Amino acid sequence: MRIVLRIGGSVVASPVNTSLISKYAEIVRALKEQGNEVVVVVGGGALAREFIDIAKKLGLDEQAQDELAISVSRLYAQLFLKKLGAIGCKQVAVTLDDVIEYLNEGKIVVMGGLKPGITTDTVAALAAEHVKADLLVKGTDQEGVYNKDPRKHADAVKLDRLSFDDLASVFAEHKHKAGIHQIIDPEAIKALKRGRMRLVVVNGFKPENILAAVKGENIGTVIS
Question: Which residues neighbour 214 within 8 Å (Cβ) at sequence distance 6 or greater?
């Protein structure tokens, strides 16, 4: 099975959670040992958004803001890659062609941001499309996708299954902007729809949820 795992910066990097990063390394190692090919995309979290704010205060444009956020996400990706050791690719993947090359070498691929104008959600979706992945799993700071923002609405209900078309109705933002922070970004959905990809959104604070999603257990929200 070819799996793309998107680890939210809000989960492992806001603040940096070293024990959680270590657990994710174990999970990814286990997936590899089970015969899966794995691509990991790590977000920049609060630090990336902090750099975006600093860039704004310096009067830098949105492209510059995005470039700084990408650098932060790649720093976290490098940290994760170092923790993986020999089973990881030789360096953080910075293009979609890198992803194919490192998978062909039998390595776990780790990447952060790719280019300005897209979030790490979209990076994960484009990588999944590019390598024809069987599954994209996103570990986020919520139990799944809700009918409205559970951080603002106590009566929000978690949805077990959704189509990509349904997602538009639960979104706050419908186009990219630097530092966008919602359950899955709208550009990512376009790529997933093109690739007819299955996406499972789970609580990323419990890394074992990733294994459950890969096994097809009833966890989080399945979007297809």
Answer: 1, 3, 31, 36, 135, 137
- Taking alpha carbons only, the member of 167, 196, 195 closest to residue 183 is 167
Compute and round to an integer the Cα radius of gyration of the chain.
16
CATH number at residue 195: 3.40.1160.10
pLDDT tens-digit profile of 38-84? Answer: 999 999 999 999 999 999 999 999 999 999 999 999 999 999 999 99
Domains held by the chain: number = 1
Q: How far apart are CA 192 and CA 70, in angstroms?
A: 21
CA distance 128 to 170: 23
H/E stretch holding 46: helix 45-57
Scan for tokens 């419990």, then name that residue: 206
**DSSP annotation of 85:** G
CB atoms within 10 A of CB 45: 25
Residue with tokens 């922070």: 181
For 42, the domain range is 2-223
Residue 115 structure tokens: 């280019």
pLDDT of residue 176: 46
Element (H, E) at 37: strand 37-42
For the whole prediction, is pTM greater than 0.85?
Answer: yes
